[in-house]
């Protein structure tokens, strides 16, 4: 009996609340000049669909969060460093619903002057200052060159094995060969008193192959003489010193064999008028 009395009291109360909400709803003519509201976020209950457009706009404004602004923590002649504590916004959580409730990230933003019309912005969580981060970014192509030397120069991209086991053996053998050539280049660079990357990987590899690997068998004393001679020859395989780096016209290149990876071949085919040749299919 008591339960029925409570239900009887709640029904009129609920009707009264809904009526008050309808009375607070602005007329349609006032809502028509407002921009269409965004879709309701996931944490709004289904009862929110019964609200008018103006009420939904008010709920969205309350639920939105102002993103945190970066704080300047370091400044130099050519750089500025900011700290930012990132937390996902409501839109981030809509697009990535699997984010943890306490998701956050502390990063530093480096603004580096690179003598261009626009500065360079780097985002990292490493404990680097601006110039160090810019130096690391400048050396990003070293990774690309190393991959090229491994895949193209040592031909590691053409593995002929069919089974998984033989593929792994051939692949790891290529890795060992690359490390041996890299160590040989370090020794030759030490002899030439230059950084290792100052020596051309392909020239060092060709010297190692011709002077050591393709030679007939011999005793240890003779082999050591050959090794010293190979080092002296490899120490001369330097990249040329250019006052200005090479520049090439910006254009889309079609997929081509790796044997034509050097744009130098296209430069040799440049016409007498100075126009670059059209890319071949």
List keywords for this structure.
alpha+beta; 9% strand; disordered N terminus; 281 residues
How do the strands and helices of this protein lay out in sequence?
Elements: H1 2-24, H2 28-31, H3 53-63, E1 71-75, E2 79-86, H4 90-95, E3 105-112, E4 120-124, H5 130-138, H6 140-153, H7 164-192, H8 201-213, H9 220-234, H10 264-268
Helix pairs in contact: 7-8, 7-9, 8-9
Strands ordered across the widest β-sheet: 1-2-3-4
Q: Mean pLDDT score, rounded?
A: 74
The radius of gyration over CA amounts to: 34 Å
Helix content: 40-55%
Total DSSP E strands: 4
Q: Report strand %.
A: 5-15%
Low-confidence stretches: 1-64
Largest sheet entry: 4 strands, antiparallel
Q: What series of H and E elements makes up the topology?
A: HHHEEHEEHHHHHH
What is the end-to-end distance? 88 Å
Helix/strand-derived category reads: alpha+beta
* Overall form: extended
Count of separate DSSP helical elements: 10
